[in-house]
Amino acid sequence: MLETNMTFRQFLLHDYRNEGLEKDLVFLLEDIATACAIISNHVRDGAFKGNLGVAGSTNIQGEDQKQLDVIADEEFIRHCSNCSRVAALVSEEVDEVHWLKKETKAGDYIVYFDPLDGSSNLDVNLSVGSIFSIVQIAEPIDTSTDASVLIKGSKQICAGYSVYGPSTSLVITTGHSVNGFTHQQGTGEFRLTFKDMTIPETTSEFAINASRYRLWDEPIRAYFDECLAGVDGARGSNTNMRWTASMVADIHRILTRGGVFLYPMDEGNRATGGKLRLMYEANPMGFIVEQAGGSASTGTQRILDVTPTSHHQRVPVIMGSKDEVARIDAFHGKS
Ligand SMILES: O=P(O)(O)OC[C@H]1O[C@](O)(COP(=O)(O)O)[C@@H](O)[C@@H]1O
Ligand SMILES: [Mg+2]
Ligand SMILES: [Mg+2]
Question: The pTM is what?
Answer without folding.
Answer: 0.97
